[in-house]
Design goal:
By secondary structure, this protein is an alpha/beta fold. Helix content is 44%, strand content 16%.
Length: 482
Amino acid sequence: MKYISTRGNPEEFTASQAIEKGICSDRGLFVPKEFPKVSLEEIEQMKKRDYKEIALSILKRYLMDYSEEELKECIGVYDETFSHPEKAPVVKLKDGVYVLELWHGPTLAFKDMALQIMPRLFTYARKKNNAEKDSLILVATSGDTGKAALEGFKDLKGVKVVVFYPADGVSDVQRLQMQTSAGKNVEVVGVNGNFDDCQTAVKNIFLDEELNRSLDKFKLSSANSINLGRLLPQIVYYFKAYLQLLRDDEITLGEVVDFSVPTGNFGDILAGYYAKQMGLPVGKLICASNKNNVLYDFLKTGVYNKQREFFKTMSPSMDILVSSNLERLLYHTLEDGKVLNEIYNKFEENGVLELDTVSLKKIQETIVPDYSSEEECLETIYNTFDKNNYMIDPHTSVAMNGALKNKSRKIVVLSTANIYKFSSSILKAFDLEKSNEFENIQALEKLSKEDIPLNIKKLKSLKILHTKVIDKDKLRYILKSL
């Protein structure tokens, strides 16, 4: 399996080379030259396997320059750091509606599903490519990626991690999780701006030749979902969900299942698209957006316009106007990197991307756009608990609302965060919000009857280690001081 750039550069790379580099030198993203296939017979054989075994079966088809023993060592992290024996359990909410819980890792967010295994893949990638310099991992986060990356890469030899987050654009718990992160090789920096400002600045740093030369002791890489090491492990839990439904006799072999995905940077839903291309019986993928509904408008009209008002919402990990992984979907749709390069050059110049009607219809065959207002988000949180005695966070609420509005067959809702990361927003749905975040956590425990996770309880007593906040045009100066 080889990987190439979305922007038309014909040079081919191995999986480990792509993971170590993070982003292509021509501004493109790495994509597989082809999709490995999984037959229905193989899916039937996999239905009784555990998460690690499923992960090995899927990832070895993409990571072909890793040995099976190396992959097993990487995948072993799921037994070490995840609290649930299923790792990503599927919970039946009601007839035909299921919830895939992706938040049983150490930072209580779906990002752990990839960012626990990625550091091990990255370490092997450095060895395979004879890395001479230390790697400097740059991370732009809208909330959850930051802590997951810090947890995964902390104290890793030969690696330094710098996380940039929007100073006023994350929940209190997300902020505290990052600011209290220990590790000799980690740094956390707040940015006066939104996630798109952080993400754009990080991408520009990668492509700034002068800055890269000045960082002569480091080689840059990324832990965002632009990195294949983030994207590929996410494919696994789509297979896990389908296989558990099959194992539990909720579906029959070959039965098509839909998925509803809370979507910001488009990586989570793109993994579902990859799973479908591999042969998993995926029907529709509901692209569920919040009030920042730029993807909804694009998937309806073919016009992506980032020049629009940015909203801070109760689902901050989705507060994004430039969805990086959409580029990969467009490449697989157009199948022409040179054309895509022209499209993105115009997009970078004027902030508008236009797709032809034929290509848009091709995407619409699989991906269904939906979005929720803040009021709908609160209403769905309330109704899900009132009718099903199941509490969900605001991001999951957006996906749940999208699932219920678009349900035509059995559907799985991706639940991306533990409720205690967003206590204050959840309590708004019940008119029970307190003035203090830790009071909100206690109130949510009383309401939900779900135990507060230990690492949330500890936050109150942990020392804040990272307090730096900078303007969005000063990111490069942080790196020069390393």
